């Protein structure tokens, strides 16, 4: 049951992340953290989305058509690795225009987590683009994510886990391993 709830929470958070309208301002880059051990983690490469990331297993890819909060079509694609008490996700949403709001994306994440609240939220820069670095929690789970916009694409890199299974070093290694290839 908890496994299904975690997948649902990630899916709901991913869907709400897609709604946006105005680009937010950036700030300083996050401090670097240790990378996960490459012999334990596998690279996931998306040629279409131009990224690589290390995950502790092979994620499942999915893509669907949807509409944003003003009714315009968007394509939401994700790589999700659900390990039961924790999950790792890279999601990207393709919009028709560049009017994408990081504030709305973060608001959508919070609304997608039942009883969710932000415990840390800072603005920064990822790959030369405005970004948000957000930590959230519910009574049962913790979530850490990085959200940024590049052109007409909204990227979200997130890890969520039960409070008892939240391995800080692994989650930071996963988040830090995300790289754009161009």
Can you characterise this structure?
With 182 residues, the chain is an alpha+beta fold. It has a single domain, classed as Protein Transport Mog1p, Chain A. Helix content is 20%, strand content 43%. It contains three helices and ten strands; from the N terminus they run αβββββαββββαβ. It has a seven-stranded antiparallel sheet with strand order 3-4-5-9-8-7-6, with helices on both faces. Strands 1-2-10 form a three-stranded antiparallel sheet. Helix 1 packs antiparallel against helix 2. It starts with a helix and ends with a strand. The N terminus is likely disordered.
Under CATH at level 1, the class stands as Alpha Beta
Instruction: Provide the CATH architecture.
Output: 3-Layer(aba) Sandwich
CA radius of gyration is 15 Å
Note the main sheet: 7 strands, antiparallel
Number of helices: 3
């Amino acid at each position: 049951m908890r496994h299904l709830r975690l997948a649902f929470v990630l899916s709901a958070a991913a869907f709400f992340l897609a709604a946006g309208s105005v680009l937010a301002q950036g700030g300083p880059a996050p401090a670097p953290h240790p990378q996960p051990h490459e012999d334990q983690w596998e690279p996931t490469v998306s040629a279409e989305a131009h990224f690589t990331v290390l995950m502790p297993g092979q994620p499942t890819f999915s893509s669907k058509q949807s509409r944003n909060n003003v009714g315009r079509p968007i394509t939401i694609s994700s790589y999700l690795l659900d390990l039961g008490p924790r999950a790792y996700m890279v999601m990207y949403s393709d919009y028709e225009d560049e009017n994408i709001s990081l504030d709305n994306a973060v608001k959508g994440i919070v609304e997608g987590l039942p009883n969710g609240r932000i415990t840390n939220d800072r603005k920064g820069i990822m790959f030369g683009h405005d970004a948000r670095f957000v930590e959230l929690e519910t009574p049962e789970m913790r979530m850490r994510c990085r959200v940024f916009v590049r052109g007409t694409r909204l990227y979200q890199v997130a890890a969520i886990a039960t409070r008892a299974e939240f391995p800080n070093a692994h989650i930071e290694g996963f988040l830090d391993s995300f790289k754009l290839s161009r």
